[in-house]
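We now fix the convention by which a protein and its fold are recorded. Think of the row as the fold of the chain written in a discrete alphabet. Here is one such record, which you should read through line by line.
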Amino acid sequence: MLVITRIHVVYTLRVPRDVDRAAVQRAFDHHMPFCPVYRSIGSAIETTTALELVEIDD
């Protein structure tokens, strides 16, 4: 039987070159407690995240 024991989520965000990276990082660092999926499975499944920013031209 397959059992999921951990999940790694990579967020890839397309952002303008002049984005406030500190603000994006703060939002990313604080989002998990407000995510309904994480709140549902967070105590049973190890969940890690990573943030990848892709710069785009406006």
In short: Helices lie at 21-30, 36-41. The chain has a mean pLDDT of 94.
